[in-house]
Design goal:
- The chain has about 55 residues and is mainly alpha-helical.
- The chain has two helices and no strands.
- The longest helix has 28 residues.
Length: about 55
């Protein structure tokens, strides 16, 4: 996995987790759902890059 793509995946995961937590704390279901979606997007990006790496080696 390239360092840039790995960093982007980790950033998406962290931002999503924070947004989800803030939304939950504030009782804002929409913000919590957006955060969860963003975290999932980061998880998917990370999984895709790991799969690419597995096929390269």
């Amino acid at each position: 996995m390239t360092a840039g793509k790995k960093a982007k995946a980790k950033t998406e995961q962290a931002e999503g987790k924070a947004k989800e937590a803030l939304g939950s704390a504030l009782g804002n279901d929409r913000m919590a759902a957006e955060g969860q979606a963003q975290k999932s997007k980061g998880d998917a990006r990370e999984a895709k890059e790991k799969a690419k790496d597995a096929f390269k080696h």
